[in-house]
Amino acid sequence: xxxxxxxxxxxxxxxxxxxxxxxxxxxxxxxxxxxxxxxxxxxxxxxxxxxxxxxxxxxxxxxxxxxxxxxxxxxxxxxxxxxxxxxxxxxxxxxxxxxxxxxxxxxxxxxxxxxxxxxxxxxxxxxxxxxxxxxxxxxxxxxxxxxxxxxxxxxxxxxxxxxxxxxxxxxxxxxxxxxxxxxxxxxxxxxxxxxxxxxxxxxxxxxxxxxxxxxxxxxxxxxxxxxxxxxxxxxxxxxxxxxxxxxxxxxxxxxxxxxxxxxxxxxxxxxxxxxxxxxxxxxxxxxxxx
Length: 290
What we know:
CBS domain, Histidine kinase, 290 residues, 12 helices, CBS-domain, CBS_dom, 4-stranded mixed sheet, alpha/beta, 3-stranded mixed sheet
């Protein structure tokens, strides 16, 4: 494909409207609703964010925010009654207030630039009056890859330093490490071998089940192996980013382990893919202007 043809494709992708990519009916909570209700909505919808709104967008709560809330409050340990009490906290006390929003008429490059520059995993979509209209996450933006030609191998953008967790580690300890270090997923090891993946979504589902079923003891005593996802998908370092993005979107997962000759080489996440997308598109459009 000629360079001019590639530039045309990149420009077409960068001009894609958010309305064509966003989740049109994201989970919504009113400010007076409780944390336990938000946990249920995230668990039931499988979308890692809740927009907090009355007539207008007031805030947003992510999976990480909800886990962090419980971990911070239970840093020195929690009794069962305290976990249940925390679930009765108003969501307005946990949400990120007055979040940056994008419009349905904004372009993909607008949202992509904000999310990369501000390290956001999602953006609420609102109209001019800030009424909620949708949500755009990293996964939705990865759909742009299917419109692009080859964008290079995974090894150029993967994270080579892979932080792991033992399958026997207490879940609350692993969740605390994820919150403190900003991890959304950790490969799980047993006897030196990767046997699963622990994600923030796994932690939240376990937390939600404990709160909803009024059995907080479960989350307090659980081990990583009790809630981890045993499905681990690996790719070769030379696989194209476009193909890796397709796997993430189709499988509805947030990361792929990169393996060569049976050895773990790194991990490529939705975040890594988003950074790569922004880099590739910025590089192309900047080169065009020059």
